[in-house]
Structure formats: structure tokens, C-alpha cells
Predict the structure.
Amino acid sequence: MTSRTTTAIAVALAATGLASTVQAQSAQTDAQRIAALEARVAQLEETRSEPLTFGTETGTQLEFYGYFKSDFIYDFGYKLGNTTFGLVGIGPGAEDGDAFTATVNQTRLGFRTTTQTGMGELGTQVEIDFYGASGAFADAGPEPRLRHAVATLGGLRIGKYWTTFMPLSSYPITLDFQGVAGIPFARQEQIRYTHEFGNNMSASVALEDSNAGSDTPVVIGALAYDTDPLLLRASVIGGQVEDDGGSDEDVWGVNLSTTAQLWEGGSFDASYTYGEGIASYLVFLGDDLDANGDPIEVQSAYAGLSQEVGEDWTFRAIYGWRENETGLMGDTESLQSVHLNASYQITERASFGVEYFNGKRETFGGGSYGTDRIQTSFQVDF
């Protein structure tokens, strides 16, 4: 073998070794880059849902939440508007005929804060939607409206929030913003204290601004027994409403509600309300006093059944009813509502739903009127 041949072979072997070394180093660098990227992605995934923190000394955490919701609605018989609140006016003189409407008014924005203090966790919440315009429940466009503004510390709650009289945990879900006939409903300024007794029992007492516009507050108490498969709750309300002559009339009411998990994926919600002069605390509102200035006796109820099917579908059927004991000719004597809806979870945060609504209004004097609507909704939570 010549010297030239030996040199060529050595050079070739050296080049091969160098190429292998470079290739190994390149592969190692790529692996390190991939590992670093994977670690970064994992870190982002872990911290994505963590609340913002501000104020180095207070350690306050801030969480933004809400959703975008767009509704497309078609009415048959009477033009109800953005919600079914128009049910209280169907009959002679109401705008009839079929109608299409769409709205984004239910879109919701809010934030919560939590701060650890020597007295416990201090929380705040502020939330708005876009039903703030005059006629927003008929056909008006979106304008901001304050829903909640509240602070909590231990069992104490101060600010504007759902009324303590309302059975919030047993509230049935509808695509329609107005909801089911027969439900107690209000958001009021209040001071509330809730005490947990243990054994799944809790009690609340509240002093709230009257939803009837009275110069005196209302007093509300509630007692709840809450387990995983069963919730039983009772609440009472008492206050006064001023009549046209300036005299204060006593008003009161009681609500009984329940939620039960019946079987896998199936649940049942129900509520019954009875009282005098509490129409202003029920969905669809109404007069608290009659023409003589006496509190109007009213009772209402609803029942709803929901069933999850698979991981993405939920089906619901809800019936609501409300009846006034007295009223003038042509005034509302009773309301009935039926909601049948289905919702599909497109992604973890996006859903689509369709709902059929049937509403019926009966008036003193024998009038009876009905209406139907189809509603579809698209919602993205954030």
C-alpha cells in the first residue's frame, strides 16, 4: 500500500468520524430544543388558568370570566322580542304575527378578586351584561348593565347580588334569558350572613332593598340541606309595600325548592312559591297590590328534568306555572311556560343549543292566548 493511499484512507476515516460527531451533536441539540419547548408548553398550560396577581403587599389575585352568546329567534303568533318577557302582554292589542330577531345582549363580562387577610379570605365580584337599554327585553340593542357588585368575607356578603329568597341552586337552564314562569328572581342590594352548621346544613339571614321600590327593606331567611345527590331548601320573605294612599301594606312569601340526582346523568329541579304581595319577586313581575290596595295572593311552581347523553349532549324539559288570585278584567290571571332544549358541547368552551318555547296567558274574564318560538344559541366561555 502506497503512502498516498494510506493518507487518503486516514483522511476519509477522519471525515467520517467528524461527520458522525457533528450529526450526534446536532441530534443532541435538537433533542434539547424539543425538550425545552415541551417544558415551556407544559408551563404555559399549567399557568394559563391561574389568576393574575397584583399588589405585592396585598397578594390580591384577579380572575376574569364571562362568555359571548349570540341568539337567533323566530316567534310564531306574537312578537315577543329578545326574550319571552312579552308573554305578559300577549292578547288584544299586542303585536301579532311571525317575526325573526337576533341578539347578543346576554353576553357577560366579570371579574373576581381574592385577598388573604387576618380575618380570612376577602372576595369581590363585579359582573355586567348588555341588557341595560330601555326596552332591552323587547328589541333594543346592547348596552352595559350592572348585574353584581359584591364583597364577601367569611359568611358575610355585602352588595348587589341574587336575592336570598331565590332558589339559585335549583334554577333550571333555558336558552331564553327570561327563564321559566314561576321562578323567584331578583338581584338586590343586601347585607347577608350565612352560617354553616355542619352535617350539610346551612342558614342565611339577609336585609335587602325591596324589589317593589318600597321605602322599607325586606327581611329574608333561608335554610338549606345540601348533599351531593339531594338539595332541600326553604326561604321566607317579609316586608312592606306602600299603596296609593301612602299606607304600608304587609307582604310575605315562602319558597320551597329541591334538586335531586335521579340516576346517571339525570337530574330533577323543582320549586313552589306562595305569598301575598310578592309578584315583584317572580319572573315576569306584576303588581303587588290590587286596585283596593290589598296584597295580591300569588302562587307559582316549576319542575324541570335534564339528561346528559354521552359526553357532549344535554336535553332538558321544563314546565313553569304562575297564578294570581285577584285582578281586574283583562289582567293576567295565570302564565304557563314550556321549554324543551338541547345543547351540544362543540369544544371545552364552545356550545350550541336549540330550544322550543310554548307560552300561555290567561286573563281575568276568560281570555286565553298562546304563542310559540324557536331559539338557537351559540356560546363561547372564557
Q: What stands out?
A: The chain has a mean pLDDT of 89. Residues 3-47 form the longest helix (45 residues). Residues 41 and 284 are 49 Å apart (CA to CA). The chain has one helix and 18 strands.
